[in-house]
Amino acid sequence: MCAYVLNPHTEWLRSDAACVAQPLDMVEARLAEVVASEVNAASDVAFHLLEAGGKRVRPALVLLSAGAGGGNVCDPKVIDLAAAAELVHMGSLVHDDVVDETRERRGVPTASGKWGNKISVLGGDFLVAKAFLLLAAIGKPEVIEVLSSTAVRMTESEVLQAECEGDVHGWRANYWQIIKGKTAAFTAACCECGAILAEARPETRARLAAFGEDFGLAFQISDDLLDILGDSAETGKDVGTDLTQGKFTLPVLLALQHAAGPDQARLQSLLEPGFLSADQAREVLRIAVECGVTGMAREIALDYVENARASLGCLPYGIYTNALGTLAASVADRNA
Ligand code: IPE
Ligand code: IPE
Ligand code: MG
Ligand code: MG
């Protein structure tokens, strides 16, 4: 059974990462094994999110980078690293949904919606703890070092983001730092750690890490675009909540620079109070679309995709390197 395709909205990853379909299934089996717990509520939270699907982007990055670095993509340590990456990601999603007060994730109710914040915060901790248990058993100190420092950065960025909530000036000053820390540092670490387990040469490792960082920036910009332009039937999560939660992402920051005439003043007055109603969010979206900044944000995401692909440069081990390039190419146009 190919368990990782449970989410029907992940065709772009399935076809782009076809060369790691078999190890991705192994990762899926490993995930189901390691999140078992004698404490039912802990494994319930984990299985709820696991079985709902998800694109498995981070495990795919680990596996493809290990392959691109010359390693064996079915090596049990590589499989465990990929599973650990998904566990860290899932933990961050469970926590993120508490913080963002969202109701839907991967097409099902969020853990916080189903079990409340207390169980969700602890369930998220359980997922991250399980990840580090897997990482410890891999026995590569460099991998633990890279992923621990990344987990610190992710947490710091979530804190910074929470501090900026409702503060457009804070977002203007910190947007890039926030998305680098919460998303790009992690995708970079997935690629770098895949390369470490492959015993790749330092230059290959650095190129894969650089690829992962630019991939993550493009990925988060497109996530921010999906929040304002996407369809929750396709993304499987709430849309339109960034503005109601006071998160002013790239399209909005660009609209502040590019809106003209009465729209400029109107936009300022809509954003200044910090938290928007659904109707006000729709008005911001209209202004953003009319002044062309949603297209501009997509172009910026595409620039990062190009940078990511350039980092792959003349890396050896064709099929995996090619698959990374193809995966990156579809990031800016994904709809889920
Ligand atoms: C969502 O990540 C969080 C971000 C960093 C944007 P994904 O879009 O990869 O979520 P899943 O794993 O497919 O559910
Ligand atoms: C990414 O930011 C969150 C994490 C890194 C966990 P978002 O808050 O935009 O992610 P979504 O949109 O809820 O998936
Ligand atoms: Mg969120
Ligand atoms: Mg988002």
In words, what does this structure look like?
- This protein is mainly alpha-helical and 336 residues long.
- 75% of the residues lie in helices and 1% in strands.
- It contains 17 helices and two strands.
- It has a two-stranded antiparallel sheet.
- A hairpin with a 2-residue loop joins β1 and β2.
- It starts with 10 loop residues before the first helix and ends in a 5-residue tail after the last helix.
- The structure holds 3-methylbut-3-enyl trihydrogen diphosphate (2 copies) and magnesium ion (MG) (2 copies).
- One magnesium ion binds next to α5.
Task: Provide the descriptors you would attach to this structure in a database record.
336 residues, mainly alpha, two-stranded antiparallel sheet, 17 helices, globular, disordered N terminus, binds 3-methylbut-3-enyl trihydrogen diphosphate, binds magnesium ion
- Main-sheet strand order equals 1-2
pLDDT < 50 stretches? 1-9
**Ligands, deduplicated:** 3-methylbut-3-enyl trihydrogen diphosphate, magnesium ion
Global outline? globular
> Helical content, roughly?
over 70%
Instruction: Please state the CA-atom Rg, rounded to the nearest Å.
Output: 19 Å
Class inferred from helices and paired strands: mainly alpha
Distance between the termini: 23 Å
Order of helix and strand elements from N to C terminus: HHHHHEEHHHHHHHHHHHH
Task: Give the tally of β-strands.
Answer: 2
* Content of β-strand: under 5%
Number of helices: 17
- Please describe the biggest sheet, giving its number of strands, its sense, and whether it closes into a barrel: 2 strands, antiparallel
- Average pLDDT level: 94
Oligomeric nature of the chains: single chain
